[in-house]
Amino acid sequence: MKIVLAGAGIGGLVAAMCLHRAGFDVEVHEAVGELKPLGVGINIQAAAVRILCGLGLEPALAATAIETRELRYANRHGQTIWADPRGRHAGLPWPQFSIHRGELQMILFHAARQMLGAERIRFGRRIAGFTQKGNKVTARLVGRDGRTSDSVEADILIGADGIHSAVRAQFYPDEGPPKWQGILMWRGVTVGKPFLDGTTMVQAGHHTQKFVCYPVSRSHAERGEALINWICDLHMGDGALPSREDWNKPGKLADFLPRFENWKFGWLDVPGVIRAAHTILEFPMIDRDPLPRWSHGRVTLLGDAAHPMYPIGSNGASQAIIDGEAITQELSAGGDPEAALQRYEQRRLPPMARIVESNRRKGIDIMLDIVEQRAPQGFSDLESVLPSDELEKIVGDYKKLVAQDRETLLQLARAR
Fold first, then answer.
1. Residue ranges of the domains in the chain?
2. Less Cβ around it within 10 Å: N or C end of the chain?
3. Are 183 and 233 in contact (CB under 8 A)?
4. What is the pLDDT of residues 42-101, one digit of tens each?
5. pLDDT by residue (tens digit) across 184-199?
Protein backbone atom coordinates (compact mmCIF):
# COMPACT_ATOMS: atom_id res chain seq x y z
CA MET A 1 0.00 0.00 0.00
CA LYS A 2 1.40 3.39 -1.00
CA ILE A 3 0.90 6.25 1.44
CA VAL A 4 1.73 9.86 0.59
CA LEU A 5 2.20 12.45 3.34
CA ALA A 6 1.86 16.18 2.79
CA GLY A 7 4.41 17.86 5.04
CA ALA A 8 7.79 16.99 6.54
CA GLY A 9 7.27 18.59 9.92
CA ILE A 10 7.46 16.75 13.22
CA GLY A 11 4.16 14.91 12.80
CA GLY A 12 4.72 14.06 9.14
CA LEU A 13 8.22 12.65 9.62
CA VAL A 14 7.28 10.58 12.67
CA ALA A 15 4.23 9.19 10.87
CA ALA A 16 6.38 8.38 7.84
CA MET A 17 8.85 6.42 9.98
CA CYS A 18 6.14 4.55 11.87
CA LEU A 19 4.39 3.62 8.62
CA HIS A 20 7.61 2.59 6.90
CA ARG A 21 8.61 0.41 9.82
CA ALA A 22 5.19 -1.27 9.58
CA GLY A 23 5.89 -2.20 5.96
CA PHE A 24 4.06 0.52 4.03
CA ASP A 25 5.41 2.23 0.92
CA VAL A 26 5.75 5.84 2.12
CA GLU A 27 6.52 9.08 0.30
CA VAL A 28 6.72 12.58 1.84
CA HIS A 29 6.28 15.86 -0.03
CA GLU A 30 7.39 19.11 1.61
CA ALA A 31 6.84 22.68 0.38
CA VAL A 32 10.17 24.18 1.50
CA GLY A 33 13.22 23.71 -0.65
CA GLU A 34 15.41 22.57 2.23
CA LEU A 35 14.87 21.70 5.88
CA LYS A 36 16.86 23.91 8.23
CA PRO A 37 17.21 23.84 12.04
CA LEU A 38 14.92 26.82 12.60
CA GLY A 39 12.70 27.85 15.47
CA VAL A 40 13.06 27.96 19.22
CA GLY A 41 12.41 25.44 22.00
CA ILE A 42 9.87 22.67 22.30
CA ASN A 43 8.86 20.13 24.95
CA ILE A 44 8.17 16.50 24.08
CA GLN A 45 6.02 14.72 26.62
CA ALA A 46 6.90 11.24 27.86
CA ALA A 47 3.96 9.68 25.97
CA ALA A 48 5.44 10.93 22.71
CA VAL A 49 9.04 10.19 23.69
CA ARG A 50 7.92 6.56 24.09
CA ILE A 51 7.21 6.50 20.34
CA LEU A 52 10.48 8.22 19.44
CA CYS A 53 12.37 5.73 21.61
CA GLY A 54 10.64 2.93 19.73
CA LEU A 55 12.04 4.41 16.52
CA GLY A 56 15.54 4.22 18.00
CA LEU A 57 15.92 7.98 18.50
CA GLU A 58 16.53 8.22 22.24
CA PRO A 59 20.36 8.37 21.98
CA ALA A 60 20.22 11.23 19.46
CA LEU A 61 17.66 13.11 21.53
CA ALA A 62 19.51 12.60 24.81
CA ALA A 63 22.74 13.83 23.23
CA THR A 64 21.32 17.29 22.54
CA ALA A 65 18.20 17.76 24.72
CA ILE A 66 17.65 18.43 28.40
CA GLU A 67 15.83 15.68 30.26
CA THR A 68 13.17 17.69 32.04
CA ARG A 69 13.10 16.93 35.76
CA GLU A 70 10.27 19.17 36.90
CA LEU A 71 7.41 21.36 35.69
CA ARG A 72 6.84 24.31 38.00
CA TYR A 73 3.95 26.79 38.01
CA ALA A 74 4.46 30.12 39.80
CA ASN A 75 2.67 33.42 40.19
CA ARG A 76 4.08 36.68 38.78
CA HIS A 77 6.04 37.16 42.00
CA GLY A 78 7.90 33.86 41.51
CA GLN A 79 6.09 31.99 44.29
CA THR A 80 5.57 28.31 43.52
CA ILE A 81 1.98 27.18 43.09
CA TRP A 82 2.59 23.62 41.90
CA ALA A 83 5.62 21.51 41.00
CA ASP A 84 5.48 18.13 39.34
CA PRO A 85 8.26 15.64 38.51
CA ARG A 86 8.38 14.68 34.84
CA GLY A 87 9.28 11.65 32.81
CA ARG A 88 11.67 9.22 34.47
CA HIS A 89 11.83 11.49 37.51
CA ALA A 90 8.13 10.70 37.97
CA GLY A 91 8.85 6.97 37.78
CA LEU A 92 7.88 6.57 34.12
CA PRO A 93 9.83 4.36 31.70
CA TRP A 94 10.61 7.31 29.41
CA PRO A 95 11.95 10.83 29.85
CA GLN A 96 10.41 14.14 28.94
CA PHE A 97 12.72 16.15 26.68
CA SER A 98 13.16 19.90 26.28
CA ILE A 99 14.92 20.52 22.99
CA HIS A 100 15.50 23.16 20.34
CA ARG A 101 12.84 22.63 17.71
CA GLY A 102 15.40 22.90 14.92
CA GLU A 103 17.52 20.19 16.51
CA LEU A 104 14.50 17.92 16.84
CA GLN A 105 13.48 18.59 13.25
CA MET A 106 16.91 17.62 11.95
CA ILE A 107 17.12 14.49 14.11
CA LEU A 108 13.78 13.35 12.69
CA PHE A 109 14.75 14.27 9.14
CA HIS A 110 18.07 12.44 9.17
CA ALA A 111 16.46 9.37 10.74
CA ALA A 112 13.58 9.39 8.25
CA ARG A 113 15.91 9.82 5.29
CA GLN A 114 18.01 6.89 6.49
CA MET A 115 14.95 4.70 7.03
CA LEU A 116 12.94 5.61 3.94
CA GLY A 117 15.72 6.58 1.54
CA ALA A 118 16.53 10.12 0.43
CA GLU A 119 14.39 9.81 -2.69
CA ARG A 120 11.29 9.26 -0.55
CA ILE A 121 11.38 12.72 1.04
CA ARG A 122 10.93 15.31 -1.67
CA PHE A 123 11.33 19.06 -1.20
CA GLY A 124 10.20 22.17 -3.03
CA ARG A 125 6.79 20.73 -3.88
CA ARG A 126 3.62 21.13 -1.88
CA ILE A 127 0.41 19.20 -2.23
CA ALA A 128 -2.12 21.81 -3.34
CA GLY A 129 -5.14 19.58 -3.90
CA PHE A 130 -6.28 16.07 -4.66
CA THR A 131 -8.92 13.95 -6.34
CA GLN A 132 -10.24 10.54 -5.37
CA LYS A 133 -11.36 7.93 -7.85
CA GLY A 134 -12.02 4.34 -6.98
CA ASN A 135 -9.32 3.08 -4.64
CA LYS A 136 -6.77 5.75 -5.58
CA VAL A 137 -5.97 9.31 -4.55
CA THR A 138 -4.19 11.62 -6.98
CA ALA A 139 -2.45 14.58 -5.33
CA ARG A 140 -1.57 17.68 -7.34
CA LEU A 141 1.92 19.02 -6.65
CA VAL A 142 2.90 22.67 -6.98
CA GLY A 143 6.48 23.89 -7.13
CA ARG A 144 7.92 26.83 -5.24
CA ASP A 145 7.32 29.05 -8.28
CA GLY A 146 3.59 28.46 -7.85
CA ARG A 147 3.26 26.41 -11.00
CA THR A 148 1.86 22.92 -11.09
CA SER A 149 4.76 20.52 -11.47
CA ASP A 150 3.16 17.09 -11.58
CA SER A 151 1.00 14.73 -9.56
CA VAL A 152 1.43 11.62 -7.45
CA GLU A 153 -0.94 8.68 -7.04
CA ALA A 154 -1.38 6.79 -3.78
CA ASP A 155 -3.68 4.49 -1.89
CA ILE A 156 -3.78 6.86 1.11
CA LEU A 157 -3.09 10.60 1.44
CA ILE A 158 -2.33 12.06 4.88
CA GLY A 159 -2.42 15.82 5.30
CA ALA A 160 0.31 16.69 7.81
CA ASP A 161 0.73 20.15 6.31
CA GLY A 162 0.15 22.32 9.34
CA ILE A 163 -2.35 24.90 10.48
CA HIS A 164 -2.69 26.24 6.92
CA SER A 165 -3.23 22.75 5.52
CA ALA A 166 -4.26 22.62 1.86
CA VAL A 167 -5.70 19.15 2.47
CA ARG A 168 -7.92 20.43 5.27
CA ALA A 169 -8.91 23.45 3.18
CA GLN A 170 -10.20 21.18 0.40
CA PHE A 171 -12.41 19.42 2.94
CA TYR A 172 -13.54 22.70 4.54
CA PRO A 173 -13.10 25.53 1.98
CA ASP A 174 -15.21 28.00 3.97
CA GLU A 175 -13.44 27.54 7.30
CA GLY A 176 -11.65 30.89 7.18
CA PRO A 177 -8.54 31.97 9.10
CA PRO A 178 -7.40 30.53 12.44
CA LYS A 179 -9.03 31.72 15.66
CA TRP A 180 -7.35 34.35 17.81
CA GLN A 181 -8.32 35.59 21.27
CA GLY A 182 -5.99 38.58 21.33
CA ILE A 183 -2.82 37.07 22.82
CA LEU A 184 0.52 37.76 21.17
CA MET A 185 3.59 35.68 21.94
CA TRP A 186 7.21 36.78 21.83
CA ARG A 187 9.74 33.96 21.76
CA GLY A 188 13.49 33.90 22.07
CA VAL A 189 16.51 31.83 23.06
CA THR A 190 19.08 33.20 25.51
CA VAL A 191 22.42 31.90 26.71
CA GLY A 192 22.44 32.55 30.44
CA LYS A 193 22.97 31.11 33.89
CA PRO A 194 21.17 27.90 34.88
CA PHE A 195 18.13 28.50 37.08
CA LEU A 196 16.71 26.25 39.79
CA ASP A 197 18.20 22.77 39.16
CA GLY A 198 19.05 23.47 35.50
CA THR A 199 16.42 21.03 34.20
CA THR A 200 13.13 22.66 35.22
CA MET A 201 10.38 24.05 33.00
CA VAL A 202 8.72 27.14 34.49
CA GLN A 203 5.37 28.76 33.77
CA ALA A 204 4.82 31.99 35.68
CA GLY A 205 2.16 34.69 35.74
CA HIS A 206 -1.39 34.20 34.48
CA HIS A 207 -3.27 33.72 31.25
CA THR A 208 -3.11 37.31 29.98
CA GLN A 209 0.52 37.83 31.03
CA LYS A 210 2.69 34.77 31.26
CA PHE A 211 6.37 33.90 31.08
CA VAL A 212 7.47 30.38 30.17
CA CYS A 213 11.08 29.22 30.14
CA TYR A 214 13.14 26.07 30.11
CA PRO A 215 16.68 25.01 29.11
CA VAL A 216 17.01 23.13 25.83
CA SER A 217 20.69 22.26 25.32
CA ARG A 218 22.74 19.52 26.95
CA SER A 219 26.00 20.88 25.49
CA HIS A 220 25.41 24.27 27.12
CA ALA A 221 24.58 22.57 30.42
CA GLU A 222 27.83 20.62 30.27
CA ARG A 223 29.66 23.98 29.97
CA GLY A 224 27.87 25.31 33.05
CA GLU A 225 25.51 27.48 30.99
CA ALA A 226 21.85 27.29 30.05
CA LEU A 227 20.41 27.79 26.59
CA ILE A 228 17.08 29.15 27.79
CA ASN A 229 14.03 28.99 25.56
CA TRP A 230 11.49 31.57 26.69
CA ILE A 231 8.03 32.79 25.73
CA CYS A 232 6.19 35.94 26.80
CA ASP A 233 2.40 35.97 26.39
CA LEU A 234 0.44 39.22 26.54
CA HIS A 235 -3.23 39.86 25.91
CA MET A 236 -3.37 42.80 23.52
CA GLY A 237 -7.14 43.22 23.43
CA ASP A 238 -9.70 42.15 20.91
CA GLY A 239 -9.05 42.95 17.29
CA ALA A 240 -8.36 41.51 13.89
CA LEU A 241 -5.95 38.61 13.59
CA PRO A 242 -2.58 39.89 12.33
CA SER A 243 -2.01 39.02 8.69
CA ARG A 244 -0.17 35.81 7.99
CA GLU A 245 2.71 37.79 6.53
CA ASP A 246 3.33 39.30 9.98
CA TRP A 247 3.66 35.97 11.77
CA ASN A 248 7.13 35.06 12.99
CA LYS A 249 8.27 38.61 12.41
CA PRO A 250 11.13 40.09 14.46
CA GLY A 251 9.87 41.18 17.86
CA LYS A 252 10.51 44.56 19.48
CA LEU A 253 11.45 44.74 23.16
CA ALA A 254 9.48 47.96 23.59
CA ASP A 255 6.26 46.12 22.76
CA PHE A 256 6.41 43.74 25.72
CA LEU A 257 9.50 44.08 27.97
CA PRO A 258 8.08 46.97 30.07
CA ARG A 259 5.28 44.67 31.26
CA PHE A 260 7.86 42.20 32.61
CA GLU A 261 10.39 44.71 33.95
CA ASN A 262 9.69 43.91 37.61
CA TRP A 263 9.60 40.13 37.25
CA LYS A 264 12.73 39.35 39.26
CA PHE A 265 12.25 36.20 41.30
CA GLY A 266 15.62 35.80 43.00
CA TRP A 267 16.04 32.46 41.24
CA LEU A 268 15.32 34.00 37.82
CA ASP A 269 15.77 37.50 36.37
CA VAL A 270 13.05 37.54 33.72
CA PRO A 271 13.86 40.94 32.12
CA GLY A 272 17.54 40.03 32.11
CA VAL A 273 16.82 36.80 30.22
CA ILE A 274 14.67 38.66 27.71
CA ARG A 275 17.23 41.41 27.06
CA ALA A 276 20.03 38.89 26.46
CA ALA A 277 18.24 37.11 23.59
CA HIS A 278 19.98 37.22 20.23
CA THR A 279 16.74 37.05 18.23
CA ILE A 280 13.12 37.61 19.22
CA LEU A 281 10.13 36.46 17.19
CA GLU A 282 6.52 37.62 17.51
CA PHE A 283 3.43 35.73 16.46
CA PRO A 284 -0.21 35.31 17.56
CA MET A 285 -1.50 32.51 19.76
CA ILE A 286 -3.99 30.79 17.47
CA ASP A 287 -5.93 27.59 16.97
CA ARG A 288 -8.87 26.33 14.92
CA ASP A 289 -12.27 24.97 15.82
CA PRO A 290 -12.42 21.18 16.17
CA LEU A 291 -13.65 19.48 13.02
CA PRO A 292 -16.58 17.08 12.73
CA ARG A 293 -14.46 14.76 10.55
CA TRP A 294 -10.81 14.28 9.61
CA SER A 295 -11.19 11.38 7.20
CA HIS A 296 -12.96 11.47 3.86
CA GLY A 297 -12.54 8.35 1.78
CA ARG A 298 -8.84 7.60 1.57
CA VAL A 299 -7.66 11.01 2.77
CA THR A 300 -7.18 12.10 6.39
CA LEU A 301 -5.44 14.70 8.56
CA LEU A 302 -2.71 14.56 11.20
CA GLY A 303 -1.06 16.94 13.68
CA ASP A 304 -1.69 20.66 13.32
CA ALA A 305 -3.62 20.06 10.10
CA ALA A 306 -6.14 18.10 12.18
CA HIS A 307 -6.09 19.76 15.61
CA PRO A 308 -4.10 23.00 15.94
CA MET A 309 -4.26 24.08 19.58
CA TYR A 310 -3.04 26.75 21.95
CA PRO A 311 0.42 25.88 23.33
CA ILE A 312 -0.82 24.99 26.80
CA GLY A 313 0.42 21.83 28.47
CA SER A 314 3.09 21.23 25.78
CA ASN A 315 0.68 19.18 23.70
CA GLY A 316 1.01 20.31 20.07
CA ALA A 317 4.02 18.36 18.81
CA SER A 318 3.52 15.52 21.29
CA GLN A 319 -0.02 14.85 20.08
CA ALA A 320 1.13 14.95 16.45
CA ILE A 321 3.68 12.24 17.27
CA ILE A 322 0.97 10.15 18.93
CA ASP A 323 -1.20 10.58 15.81
CA GLY A 324 1.55 8.97 13.74
CA GLU A 325 1.60 5.86 15.87
CA ALA A 326 -2.20 5.66 16.00
CA ILE A 327 -2.74 5.83 12.24
CA THR A 328 -0.02 3.24 11.71
CA GLN A 329 -1.64 0.85 14.14
CA GLU A 330 -5.07 1.20 12.53
CA LEU A 331 -3.76 0.73 8.98
CA SER A 332 -1.62 -2.21 10.11
CA ALA A 333 -4.71 -3.96 11.49
CA GLY A 334 -5.63 -4.73 7.88
CA GLY A 335 -8.98 -4.70 6.17
CA ASP A 336 -10.52 -1.81 4.29
CA PRO A 337 -8.17 1.24 4.37
CA GLU A 338 -11.13 3.61 4.55
CA ALA A 339 -12.41 1.79 7.61
CA ALA A 340 -8.94 2.02 9.14
CA LEU A 341 -8.90 5.79 8.66
CA GLN A 342 -12.32 5.97 10.27
CA ARG A 343 -11.02 4.03 13.28
CA TYR A 344 -8.03 6.38 13.50
CA GLU A 345 -10.40 9.33 13.49
CA GLN A 346 -12.68 7.79 16.10
CA ARG A 347 -9.67 7.08 18.30
CA ARG A 348 -8.00 10.47 18.02
CA LEU A 349 -10.52 13.18 17.07
CA PRO A 350 -12.66 13.22 20.24
CA PRO A 351 -9.75 13.57 22.72
CA MET A 352 -8.04 16.15 20.50
CA ALA A 353 -11.23 18.20 20.30
CA ARG A 354 -11.46 18.13 24.10
CA ILE A 355 -7.85 19.32 24.43
CA VAL A 356 -8.38 22.16 21.93
CA GLU A 357 -11.48 23.28 23.81
CA SER A 358 -9.84 22.89 27.23
CA ASN A 359 -6.80 24.92 26.17
CA ARG A 360 -9.10 27.70 24.98
CA ARG A 361 -10.49 27.72 28.52
CA LYS A 362 -6.88 27.97 29.80
CA GLY A 363 -6.49 24.24 30.47
CA ILE A 364 -4.17 23.48 33.36
CA ASP A 365 -3.11 27.16 33.37
CA ILE A 366 -6.38 27.99 35.12
CA MET A 367 -4.50 27.54 38.40
CA LEU A 368 -2.43 30.62 37.53
CA ASP A 369 -5.55 32.75 37.00
CA ILE A 370 -7.15 31.53 40.22
CA VAL A 371 -4.10 32.54 42.25
CA GLU A 372 -3.84 35.90 40.46
CA GLN A 373 -7.49 36.65 41.12
CA ARG A 374 -7.44 35.59 44.76
CA ALA A 375 -3.98 36.85 45.74
CA PRO A 376 -2.74 39.44 43.22
CA GLN A 377 -0.07 40.69 45.62
CA GLY A 378 1.22 37.21 46.40
CA PHE A 379 0.53 34.83 49.25
CA SER A 380 2.02 33.66 52.51
CA ASP A 381 -0.06 30.47 52.63
CA LEU A 382 -1.00 28.83 49.31
CA GLU A 383 -3.52 26.56 51.01
CA SER A 384 -5.63 29.57 51.98
CA VAL A 385 -5.60 30.80 48.37
CA LEU A 386 -5.85 27.56 46.38
CA PRO A 387 -6.66 24.58 48.63
CA SER A 388 -4.76 21.41 47.81
CA ASP A 389 -7.88 19.43 46.92
CA GLU A 390 -8.92 22.09 44.38
CA LEU A 391 -5.41 22.21 42.94
CA GLU A 392 -5.16 18.43 42.73
CA LYS A 393 -8.45 18.27 40.84
CA ILE A 394 -7.26 20.83 38.27
CA VAL A 395 -4.03 18.93 37.73
CA GLY A 396 -5.61 15.47 37.77
CA ASP A 397 -8.42 16.36 35.37
CA TYR A 398 -6.00 17.88 32.85
CA LYS A 399 -3.53 15.00 33.05
CA LYS A 400 -6.33 12.53 32.36
CA LEU A 401 -7.59 14.66 29.49
CA VAL A 402 -4.21 14.66 27.74
CA ALA A 403 -3.25 11.10 28.81
CA GLN A 404 -0.34 12.27 30.97
CA ASP A 405 -1.49 10.63 34.18
CA ARG A 406 0.81 7.93 35.49
CA GLU A 407 -1.75 5.13 35.21
CA THR A 408 -2.43 5.74 31.51
CA LEU A 409 1.24 6.01 30.63
CA LEU A 410 2.17 2.83 32.49
CA GLN A 411 -0.65 1.00 30.73
CA LEU A 412 0.98 2.06 27.48
CA ALA A 413 4.27 0.66 28.69
CA ARG A 414 2.70 -2.69 29.55
CA ALA A 415 0.95 -2.84 26.18
CA ARG A 416 4.14 -2.50 24.15
1. 2-38+101-177+294-360
2. C
3. yes
4. 999 999 999 999 999 999 999 999 999 999 999 999 999 999 999 999 988 999 999 999
5. 999 999 999 999 999 9
Cα distances from 351 to residues 171, 316, 319, 346, 356, in angstroms, run 21, 13, 10, 9, 9
Q: Where are the alpha helices (DSSP H) in 141-287?
A: 166-171, 218-222, 270-275
CA 28/CA 11 separation, integer angstroms: 11
Cβ-count burial of 13 within 10 angstroms (0-12 exposed, 13-18 middle, 19+ buried)? buried
Mind listing the pLDDT tens digit for each residue in 313-348?
778 899 999 999 999 999 999 899 999 999 999 999
Residues 6 or more apart whose Cβ sits within 8 Å of residue 102? 36, 37, 38, 39
* CA-to-CA separations, 337 to 2, 155, 354, 357, 367, in angstroms, rounded: 11, 8, 26, 30, 43
Evaluate whether 213 touches 231 at the Cβ level (below 8 Å).
yes
Q: Mutual orientation of helices 388-401 and 366-374 as an angle, nearest 10°?
A: 160
- Cα(152)–Cα(278) distance, rounded to whole angstroms? 42
Q: What is the dihedral angle through the alpha carbons of 64, 70, 72, 78, rounded to the nearest 10 degrees?
A: -80
3-state helix, strand, coil in the chain (%, to 5): 40, 30, 35
What residues form DSSP beta bridges with 130? 139
> How many other C-beta atoms lie within 10 A of the C-beta of residue 27?
19
CA distance 4 to 179: 29
Q: Which fold has domain 2-38+101-177+294-360?
A: FAD/NAD(P)-binding domain (3.50.50)
197 CB burial (10 A radius; 0-12, 13-18, 19+)? exposed
